[in-house]
Structures are given as structure tokens and as C-alpha cells.
Amino acid sequence: MTDAAQPRPDETYSYLGPAGTFTEAALKQVHEAAGKHWRSVNNVGEALADVVDGRSTAAMIAIENSVDGGVSATQDALATVAGLRIIGEYLVPVNFVLVARPGTRLDEVRVVNAHPVAYAQSRGWLERELPDHAHLPATSNVQAAASLFENGLADAAVAPPGIVDHLDVEVLAESIGDNPNAMTRFVLVSRSRSIPARTGADKTSVIVELPDDEPGSLLAMLEQFSTRGVNMSLLQSRPIGDEMGRYRFVIDLDGHVEDERVYDSLLGLRRFSPKVIFLGSYARADRREVEYHSKYDDEIFIEARDWLRGILSGEPEED
Ligand SMILES: O=C(O)C(=O)Cc1ccccc1
């Protein structure tokens, strides 16, 4: 390919492929990505490296699912790869089928290819229906099925229902997910420093470390939010990894950094935490307006600040 034919990085979006993954379904929800070049990658690290190294303008990555919890590879990457910001959130309902090469019978299946997160969400069905199966991990839900034709290592694969549009597979069982209402939450990550505009239905994501050996520091962290009426929709601890017993906290807050109560909470966090990573403020996927008590309205914070500024600048105090 000549240079002129190379897709422009500012028009390239990376996602966990190949085509047909849930990650691709999430990227389809991004209006700005329509008609642009979509680069299929094999893992979250590769997707984020594309963004950091400037090959892509943004990457879509799975961050949490309703059955199996936080995607640790994503949370750890966001904590350690510098310069990334979340600019959007997307929800995709997830449901799985068991597929095989045509002609395979269910009672012949021994080895099942599956993305680890998909496996965790289908474990109940697999343990019940295929009690002696072995799990072979795959890089994605679609790759799990594609591998059936690339090597003979597995007899069946856990895949999205839409797989039949992409590959000549036979569906051995439908709806094998343990929870029919399972959802996966995806985030669009970029290097952009400009924060998406406040919509009133926003989230703010941060990663926080606590001071070492300070009793009560976890409570002190939580108090930053509770004293300002800020709700958390995610609180997850992840090992920092340098030594036993050290954790960082992945936190999603209801609200935008431009909301005074969120802004003030982040100032509070920054004052006592040795490390706060601001991952971004962005519109919630469900567009649900953030609810909070009116005593934490922007005006209340602004009035208090103006009052003290007035005192410092020598203005006469009102009764
Ligand atoms: O995007 C996909 O299809 C993936 O393979 C990652 C994944 C795994 C399980 C649930 C949602 C996304």
C-alpha cells in the first residue's frame, strides 16, 4: 500500500475484531466513526497502543459487564498507560451461542474456544451441558469461532448470535449465557485533551491510590464524594502489582467535572491521595439525568466561594 492509500490516523478507529464482535457493535453506535477506517486488533493493549502511538484517533474497549464485573485488563491498562481519556460510553446487550464446524454433534464437543469474559458468562451452561469440557481461550468472541477453521484445536466456540452472518458455522445451542439480560459497557478512549461538553447525564471516571499505612484513608476517599452528594456507580479495587496488599481504586462518579460538586470532590481527592488519574467526563450511555440533592447545586458552591472571596477582599458582610 502506498502512503497515499494509508488510512489517516485521525480517521481511524481501533476495536477488538474481527468484524462481528460486540466491540464492533459498540463502535457502530459512534456517529463520528461512521464511514471511517476501522482497524481490527487482537487485544485491549494493542487498541490502546494504536491511540498512544497515533495510529488511531480512538479505540473502543470493553470495560465492565453486568455478569462478570470489571474487565481487569482494561482497568489495569487505563491505570498504567499515560495520556488516555474516555470520551464516550456505550452499552451492548450480550448473548451467546455455541457453534461448531458443520456436522459436529454436541456430544462430540470436548474443547470449547471462548473469550475469557464470554466463558465466564456462559460457565453455568457449559458446566451443566458439557461437564468434562476444557476451555481454550480466544482473543475475541468472533476469533473463537474463526479459529475452528484455522486450527483443529477446539470442537466448538462461544460466539455472538450474529456469527452466522460471518462464518459457515452450525449453531449447537442458543442463549447459553447465564444471564439473558447481560450487558457489556464499552468506552471510547482517545488522546484528546478536550473534555466532552456537560450534558446533565454524565459520568466521571478516576483511578485513585491511597496513602500507605494510613488507617481510615479508604473512608477519607469515600467522604470526598459523600460530603458533596456525589454518587458512585462503580468502585473497584485492583492490585497495583508492585507488592502484596497495595491497591488502586477504579471509580465512576455520577456527574461531570464541570459540576461544582464533582469538581470539589476531585480537589478533595487530590489533596490527600498520592495519585489521582483523571480518566474523563463523558455522556452516560443510558442518557439518564444525574439525580442529586439540591443542596449540592452549582449555585450553593458558587455562593459559598463568593462569600469567602468577599471577606478576603474586604467587602462588607451581608446579614
Ligand atoms: O467484543 C467482543 O465480542 C469480545 O470478544 C469482547 C467481549 C467479551 C465478552 C463480552 C463482551 C465483549
List the helices and strands and how they pair.
Blueprint: E1 12-16, H1 22-27, E2 37-41, H2 44-52, E3 58-65, E4 69-70, H3 72-80, E5 85-93, E6 97-100, E7 111-114, H4 116-129, E8 134-137, H5 141-150, E9 156-159, E10 170-173, E11 183-190, E12 202-209, H6 217-226, E13 232-239, E14 247-254, H7 260-272, E15 275-283, H8 298-312
Parallel strand pairs: 1-2, 1-3, 7-8, 7-9
Antiparallel strand pairs: 3-4, 3-11, 5-11, 6-9, 6-10, 12-14, 12-15, 13-14
Bound molecules: 3-phenylpyruvic acid.
3-phenylpyruvic acid is lined by residues 16, 21-23, 62, 65, 94, 115, 117-118, 140-141, 160, 184.
Structure overview:
It comes from Agromyces luteolus. This is Prephenate dehydratase. Keywords: Amino-acid biosynthesis, Aromatic amino acid biosynthesis, Lyase, Phenylalanine biosynthesis. It is a single chain. By secondary structure, the protein is of the alpha/beta class. The protein folds into 3 domains: about 1-95 and about 180-195, D-Maltodextrin-Binding Protein, domain 2 (3-Layer(aba) Sandwich); about 95-175, D-Maltodextrin-Binding Protein, domain 2 (3-Layer(aba) Sandwich); about 195-310, 2-Layer Sandwich (Alpha-Beta Plaits). Helices cover about 25% and strands about 30% of the residues. It is built from 8 helices and 15 strands. The protein has helices spanning about 20-25, 45-50, 70-80, 115-130, 140-150, 215-225, 260-270, 300-310; strands at about 10-15, 35-40, 60-65, 70, 85-95, 95-100, 110-115, 135, 155-160, 170-175, 185-190, 200-210, 230-240, 245-255, 275-285. Strands 1, 2, 3, 4, 5 and 11 form a 6-stranded mixed sheet that branches. The chain has a 5-stranded mixed sheet with strand order 8-7-9-6-10. The longest helix has 15 residues, at about 300-310. The protein is elongated. The termini are far apart. The model has no long low-confidence stretch (mean pLDDT about 95). 3-phenylpyruvic acid (PPY) binds near residues 21, 22, 23 and 184. The site of 3-phenylpyruvic acid (PPY) has 14 residues, from helix 1, strand 3 and helix 4.
